[in-house]
Amino acid sequence: DSGVTQTPKHLITATGQRVTLRCSPRSGDLSVYWYQQSLDQGLQFLIQYYNGEERAKGNILERFSAQQFPDLHSELNLSSLELGDSALYFCASSDAPNTEAFFGQGTRLTVV
Amino acid sequence: AQTVTQSQPEMSVQEAETVTLSCTYDTSESDYYLFWYKQPPSRQMILVIRQEAYKQQNATENRFSVNFQKAAKSFSLKISDSQLGDAAMYFCAYRSYSTDKLIFGTGTRLQVFP
Known about the structure:
The complex is a heterodimer of chains A (112) and B (114).
Chain A: E1 5-7, E2 10-13, E3 19-24, E4 31-37, E5 44-50, E6 53-57, E7 64-68, E8 74-78, E9 87-94, E10 102-103, E11 107-111
Parallel strand pairs in A: 2-11
Antiparallel strand pairs in A: 1-3, 3-8, 4-5, 4-9, 5-6, 7-8, 9-10, 9-11
Chain B: E1 3-5, E2 10-14, E3 19-21, E4 24-26, E5 32-39, E6 46-52, E7 60-61, E8 64-69, E9 74-79, E10 88-96, E11 102-104, E12 108-113
Parallel strand pairs in B: 2-12
Antiparallel strand pairs in B: 1-4, 3-9, 5-6, 5-10, 7-8, 8-9, 10-11, 10-12
């Protein structure tokens, strides 16, 4: 158990819909990262937050948004969903650049 | 912008043999960290080994070791005495010290044959 909790584990939804993925980082970790992993692909960096502030942005679509709350949990919002958004979405957290980033078990999103 | 390249989509090794996975990266920063993560079929991301760029000594964790060549921007992973449980996707990752951004390569799928 990495200490990073992602909910839900699985999500099936229809095209055009909106979903929210939730991540609770390890206790004390200020940095939260979001990644998208399509089938047999690498991890695409989406966005990073540090202590509530957006720190870095990757290839995140305009239909996607995220935030980190005062209690440090984070949410990734995906709207106007398309079939191609079906993927495993990972959240990771860490407390410093020189330490390991711990990953949650991911949310598997299927858009039908 | 930093990039991480893994040029070997797939590798295979016989049980008990040694295999080396390649990784190169591009950065203009002098302070950073490099990691190898393993992703077994369960899809869980597991840290294998990490290297601080300011350290000249190559990191070692049991059967896993790295060959870190800072000038060449190369960071390869050597797995010795390969075991069936080593079969997985392996991702090389770069982490900026200044921005804390963590980016991954495209991965190498390692197969281990008995």
